[in-house]
Amino acid sequence: MTTTQAPPRVSGDGPGRGRRGRPHRLPGVGAGEKAIGLINGGFLVLWGLITALPLLWAILSSFKTNGEFRVDPLGLPSGVQWDNFSRAWSAANIGQYFLNSVIVVSMSVTLTMLFGAMGAYVLARYDFPGNRFVYYLFVGGLILPLFLALVPMFFIVRNTGNLPVIGQFLGLNSYVSLALVYVAFSMPFTVFFLTAFFRTLPNSIAEAGIMDGCSHFSLFWKVMLPMARPGMISLALFNFLGHWNQYVLPLVIMQDGDKRVLAQGLGTLAANTGFRADWTALFAGLVIALLPVLIVYILFQKQVQAGLTAGVLK
Amino acid sequence: MNMRHGKYPFILAFLLPPVGIYAIYMLSPYVQAIYISMTDWSGLTAAQTFIGFDNYVEMWNDDQLRKALWNNLILVLVVPVLTLLLGLFFASMLNVGGRSRGGAVTGVRGSSIYKIVYFFPQVLSVAIIGIVFKYVFAPENAGGILNRVFGAIGLDGLQRLWLAEPNYLIWIIVLVMTWSFVGFYVVLFSAAMQSIPRDIYEAALLDGSSRLTTFRKITVPLVWDTVQVGWVYMAIQAMDGFATVHIMLGINGGVEGAGDVLGVAMYREAFAESDFGYAAAIGVLTLVLALAVAMVFMRGLRRERVELA
After folding, report:
1. Which end of chain B is more exposed for a tag (fewer CB within 10 A), N or C?
2. At what angle do helices A301-313 and A229-245 cross, to 10 degrees?
3. How many Cα neighbours within 13 Å face the side chain of A142?
4. Which domain holds residue B271?
5. Do B177 and B84 touch, CB atoms closer than 8 A?
């Protein structure tokens, strides 16, 4: 911490060494405190700038012409070059990647939430032999590093392509395969979080449901699931962001150019941009990829922060 | 629950889909990885010979892998420390840094806006972060805004070809990862600091404690539990670094492979060099490292809990 001058100290058993002979002056009101406050404020603003400026720069770059970008990368764009966005969308294939991401993520988030809720509900509210075993099987997955699984996963996914009947929907370069892999890798945290959540729901309502003659299934579907809504929402946001931004799993599974998802496609585009000398289309693609996340973040700012940090605290 | 009728079919039906997908796509790869790491499998043909621990011996003698391991250790040690210090510093300023007229401890004005801005990198794809910073550190004639900024404020002497200098590479990765993590921990620690009763701070103020003393003796001990959990989580996150390195430095880990990390080395061995056996062995090494890091970090930070009455 930067302090320009130490605030006066007042100890209990002697006269404090306050400035200008005023031993009992409270810190927080003098000129020195004001200076410290300003310096602290300066650090806060500085970090804000360090965080925001690279991103603002990327957004501004997407409005420029390639000439402007090369000659004056720090300057403001002279106008908005919408053509950058259409080049990114079609020539650089970002439109296709965007569509791929939407297809995969809508499947994977739906299935993660559905299967995660089903598993967590049963584990949280039913006693049966092996309950603890299945629970720890899921939760144990939290500490396994993704990289260890990568190589065999590639072959498992490739081999599912040879299965009779369903094989044509699976295998490498398949939306369904990638979505299922996302579901699998999201299960540990989803089950862990939702189990804790279902446990907190009151028994009395479940019992009332039973008295009304609910079946196991309708008790879950009509009573418990609606009550778990707040937990489901923050977890769905968490999974949406994780799946939308995933980079390494699609790199392994979607090797065919037309099946790439957004983050992965942008990475490839960035690697080729130097040769194509089309920087502004890259940044336009980046903005296209950033928009859905930005919208979700602005709309659900509180839930996103709570949902993501809850992951650490639970 | 006292509905005996149809209980087990229901449990089975609800557990089968999640357990099935999890077992096929996540658990079984982990089990197979250990076997594959003891073969010489190229991945291109079905032929795989069991070669025992040969891949592990090869890892021991592989200088590039040693470089990658060393870089991972730098990431695991430096990124959490930097992130933790910056996170605690900004969080304490946002939440208890303000002093109102009456001498009461308050948050800084506009703290929620700071939190929104700081947190934003956390929701961004690492791919986007990698691309943006590739241009931040690029040469001046290729976008390189850092060099431009140095030029504009008269610090031409600091201009470098950042990504062409082997010694800088891993430290650039450290900076980029720290940049993207700090906001998350500011929000996390803020939540913990919000729950510290204000009157503790007021009592400290009356005693004439300086900001630094207040920070060291009150704020830090009272959020220590959160710090501890965050620390382990951060170390596991910092172990990765795959996407940042892969995008900013490429599949070979940059100039002379100086920015290589284990994840990239593993990906390269498998999908560029077609040596899946060796790649799987590197994967096992990441598991060992992850377990070791989790254990060390959890032990190293055990400290007396401060109970608030």
Report:
1. C
2. 90
3. 17
4. 54-300
5. no
Residue B309 lies inside a defined structural domain of this protein: no
Point out the residue among B123, B250, B266 whose CB comes nearest to the CB of A304: B123
DSSP helix/strand/coil, B155: coil
CA max distance for chain A:
90
Chain A residues closer than 8 Å to B125 by CB: 244-245, 247, 262-263, 266, 289, 293
CA of A41 vs chain B CAs: smallest distance (Å): 8
Number of domains in chain B: 1
- In contact, B106 and B100? CB cutoff 8 Å: yes
Contact A118, B18 (CB under 8 A): yes
The answer to whether A253 and A181 are in contact (CB under 8 A) is yes
Specify the pTM: 0.84
Tokens representing B263 are: 């994840």
Asked whether B250 and B272 are in contact (CB, 8 A), the reply is no
Residue pLDDT, tens place only, B8-28: 889 999 999 999 999 999 889
- Residue B28: other Cβ atoms inside 10 A: 16
CATH code of the domain containing B185: 1.10.3720.10
Q: What is the pLDDT of residues B143-195, one digit of tens each?
A: 788 888 888 887 877 777 888 888 889 999 999 999 999 988 898 888 888 88
Whether A12 and chain B come into contact, CB under 8 Å, resolves to yes
Chain length of chain B: 309
Q: How far apart are the first and last CA of chain B?
A: 37
Residue A129 Cα to chain centre, angstroms: 35
Q: Is residue B111 part of a domain?
A: yes
Cβ pair B125:A247 closer than 8 A: yes
Long-range pairs for A267-275: beta carbons < 8 A, 24 or more residues apart? A267/B127, A267/B130, A267/B131, A267/B243, A267/B246, A267/B247, A269/A92, A269/A93, A269/A94, A270/B130, A270/B131, A270/B134, A270/B247, A271/B247, A271/B250, A274/B142
Positive or negative torsion for Cα B18, B19, B22, B25: negative
Q: Provide the ipTM.
A: 0.83
In a domain, B9, yes or no: no
Closest-CA residue to B228 (of B300, B307, B306, B309): B300
Assess if CATH 3.40.190.170 describes domain A87-313.
no
A30: left (phi over 0), alpha (psi -120 to 50) or beta: beta
Task: Check if the beta carbon of residue B239 is closer than 8 Å to that of residue A145.
Answer: yes
Q: Between chains, do B242 and A191 touch, taking CB under 8 Å as contact?
A: no
Residue of A nearest to B266 (CA): A147
Nearest to B24, CA basis, from A170, A312, A83: A170
Angle, helix B276-300 to helix B63-96, in steps of 10 degrees: 40
